[in-house]
Amino acid sequence: xxxxxxxxxxxELCGHRIVAGFDELQHPQxxxxxxxxxxxxxxxxxxxxxxxxxxxxxxxxxxTYKRSFAEAIPDFVLQRAKIQHQWINQHxxxxxxxxxxxxxxxxxLLLTFKEQANSLHAFELDPEAVTFIQDRAAKEGIExxxxxxxxxxxxxxxxxxxxxxxxxxSLEHISNPLAVLQRWHSMLRENGLLFVEVPRExxxxxxxxxxxxxxxxxxxxxxxxxxxxxSILKKADFKILAVESDLxxxxxxxxxxxxxxxxxxxxxxxxxxxxxxxxxx
Length: 281
What we know:
Strand content: 15-25%
Radius of gyration: 18 Å
Oligomer: single chain
Distance between the termini: 33 Å
Number of domains: 1
Structural class: alpha/beta
CATH superfamily: Vaccinia Virus protein VP39
Number of strands: 11
Order of helices and strands: EEEHHEHEHEEHEEHEE
CATH class: Alpha Beta
Shape: globular
Number of helices: 6
CATH architecture: 3-Layer(aba) Sandwich
């Protein structure tokens, strides 16, 4: 995992040490981790260890959500990518782009940009997803324009290489999101774009689960609202071009549990389009 410039128990926004009280929520998936708050940013404290994360995402996550790359792409993934692609182009339509996606899953969002791209770069830690995207690119005859890497984008070492970085429902899974956003910032060319979409989870929606006995089973590490997402992007030196909260679509399994007391009926998603601003001389 990428190390942040701050300690594991310090706030990404102000740098001050966070102290979790007895009334803070215990993280449902990670032992010895609470969900605490500072500067309006709600996050895991401390972040889980690499071993804990590997165990959760390497085994429990896919099996619990029945996430399979041997089957057709889920309808909600297809629908979400279409909405995201249209929304990005509505605010900033560009062509001949070098594009990277962090944690791209089935690669649907990345490949929706194939008509606007010089090159497409998929970064994905799940080896089954890597194989799926490689096979898909070959079937569509675009493998010459697509690279697929079994690593995190922020660890790839690229600098000032991309015109657009995509992050769809991945930032909430990442330890030290500020440090990661700063790395993505360095990977963008001047005036390059960053698209981020995350679930709105502040307060933590205890109804988002897979059963009544597992009322929250998503393994997220940071729990954003619109204000905290915008704040951390600005802290990473991004200029906000557009921001929107929306109702969906969400993973269908998350909607199977009866609505809990923390659900307020509001938007479930937050999407932001940001720009690497031109550096002042």
